[in-house]
Structures are given as structure tokens and as C-alpha cells.
Write a structure and sequence with these properties.
With 225 residues, the chain is an alpha/beta fold. The protein folds into 2 domains: 14-25 and 96-223, 3-Layer(aba) Sandwich (Rossmann fold); 27-92, DNA polymerase, domain 1 (Orthogonal Bundle). The protein contains 9 helices and 6 strands. It has helices spanning 27-40, 47-52, 58-69, 75-92, 100-109, 122-129, 154-163, 177-186, 216-223; strands spanning 14-17, 114-117, 139-141, 170-174, 189-192, 205-207. It has a 6-stranded parallel sheet with strand order 3-2-1-4-5-6, sandwiched between helices. It is globular.
Amino acid sequence: MGEHRPGPADLPAAALWDMDGTLVDTEPYWIETEFALAATYGATWSTEHALALVGNDLLVSGRYIREHMGLDLSAEEIVELLLDGVVERVRREVPWRPGARELLADLVASDVPCALVTMSYRRFVEPILATLPPGTFAAVVTGDEVAHGKPHPEPYLTAAAALGVPPQACVALEDSPTGAASAEAAGCRVLAVPHHVPVPEGPGRVLHDSLSGLDARSLWTLVDR
């Protein structure tokens, strides 16, 4: 673990990035895969069910799908089938969110360490990381590497600790109420850019319409209130 060194007052000590819906828009891949799974097993599924799973721990989603699709599969087996589908899709094309890669690059160029904090599993994250310059993320926390997923604070606390910075000096970038709650509970300042689902107002979060046009300093200005 590194030691926290005070940086410029107009920059965050670190930026902690959610992945699905924030860095990349893979939610349509998950939703397509869920509908394909339902079709394979002759089950029914709906967009409402799919949106209820946005930001969730994958095993929580697996249990929800088992119950609502009525599948004779374990939550773990369902998660692996979903991962097969989304990994195949993301290998064909990584769907970046507007402004995300540019903001990420500016943070790295400004010597602001970045961590990826996602409830997706490592094997889904790897093909996305492979498209970025080596070392872009100084730490990666995935859903299969924590005991408690979002909305529990553990994922964000783990990321801040891996970077050697206090959560209160970090900005977390999120798109879902589940993720925003996780980062807020960890003590991070949260910039939420709602995408597939609305994010309610909260004491530790600032809502913004897009990452486009933001750089490291303007990001910190938004949340450092």
C-alpha cells in the first residue's frame, strides 16, 4: 500500500471509477444477455426486471434472475452464463461513455491515481483494461474479490486503501443509486452521472449530466463543496 502524499488543493487525492454505465456503457450487453438467457430456457423477462439489477452485486442479480425466471440453476451458474455473454460482446466492441476516456487520461496526466471499482468479475474487466494504456488504473477492485458488494462501502474502502489515500479525499464516479450509496457510505465525494436509472439527491453526491468536457480540476471543483 502506498503512502498518501498531499497533492494540489484543486485536485482529488484519487479518482475511483465505477465501470458499467460510467466508464463504459455495457448495461445493454447485460440486458441483451439476460433476454437471451430467458429465451434459451423458455422463461420470461422484462426491461423492468433488467433495470432493477443495474449496479448490483452479480450474485444478488443471479439470485433475482433464478427467482424471476424460475431457473433450475444456482446463482453462481447464472452469473457465469451472463459473463459468457457479456465478455463475448465486449471483446467485439468496448462501448465507452461520452467523455470518460478523456477525463481518465487527464486524471492520469495530472498524477491523480485512479482505481476501478466494479461489481463485474475480473474476467469481464480484463478485456476492457486491455484497451487502455498500461497502468491507467493503479488499483482494480472487482465483485469477485470483495466479501460485500455495492451498496456496502467495502468496494470503495478497499480501493482507497489500495491507493493509500483517505476516502474523504477521493472522488467516486458513479451512475447508479446502488453505486452512489456505496461510495457515499465509504466517505467519498460522489459525482453521479445518471444513465439507465435515475439517481436521487444525497448528502455526499453531486449530480451532473455528462462527463464530457470535464478534466481533473473541473471534476474536483464540482464535488469539493
